[in-house]
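A quick aside before the break. I want you to see a complete sequence-to-structure record at least once, exactly as it would be stored in a machine-readable document. Don't worry about memorizing anything.
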Amino acid sequence: MVQQPKAKAFPIDRGICQFDFNDYYAILGVPITANSSQVRKGYLLVAKSLHPDIYGLSPVDKVIATQYLAKMVNPAYQVLSQERERTEYSAILRLLGKRLIKRSQQVSPTSEIAKKLIAVPNTINYEQSVTSIAKIQYEQIDKILEYTAQLSELNLVYILAQEGYKFSGIEPTAPIAPIHTASSLSNFKSSSQGGSQTNSQNSYQSKRNDETLIQQNGSSATRSSTDPRQSAQSGNPAGTVQSHIRAAEECIGQKQWSAALKDLKAAIQIDCNNSKCHALLGVVYMNQKLSGMAKVSFQQALRLNPQEPIAMQNIAKVDGTAAKPNPETQAKAKETGKKGGLFGWLGK
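That is the input. The structure line, written in tokens, reads:
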């Protein structure tokens, strides 16, 4: 039997995940219509993508990839790989849709690809959309959560549409155009499969087209002119270490964690020995509730510069040496947590 979902291990607050619920289908990059063989195929592709040898350019990337696999991907597969648990989990998702409709709750997806699905929310368009994102979901560490959030929005739109939800207050864009010839997950092929030179070229071009589609549809693809990241890249596409760090500091000040992470990762690519960059990376991970990754970043910063002030100031907060909360406060928080979550919400 499906147990009550644990608190989300990673900060995703869109789609199904906004209801304090782990979206296992989005994590594995498969549609909620997937059968057991499709779930397994999706899991193997993700597990291969997150192998430390793939994200082995830096110790930080290895740790991040390992944590994604252990804390997000494996738990999702444990549920969806078992027929009975997958059936019960899917029933919970449908119940969520029914409750939202009953409460007349407004649901407003932010990604363009989810808005397009609203225009024609049939199964074919839904599966095409999921497949297009899943192909690149785990290619770049700093984009994994964004793509997973987009998948969770697609899942929520599809569930609601199946239950008869009427979307309002949203201007659907043009319906989703067919995405290449492989329109379903069953045609989803591993990148390790061999093929002729022509097939390889077509696969590469298909992948590039999908990347362009998601960049156009993703909610983070279009930024306002006041975005501090733009100033870091103007006049110099690659940017400099200091310009990326300055942009990241501005984003941190505005609590734009994903944007800050992108600039810091870009800075590390230019200079992997910049202690301040690693320290700021720790600050971002700490605010995203990723304590393990934050600790590794702070430690790396202190290895490079034992006097790095940002790392010295914050490492105790993730190293288990910071002041612990009052036991009474912890008990109250635990009691509150028992009353919350998806099941408590659904039972009201």
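Two observations worth writing down. Residues 15-184+208-217 form one domain. The chain has a mean pLDDT of 74. We'll return to this after the break.
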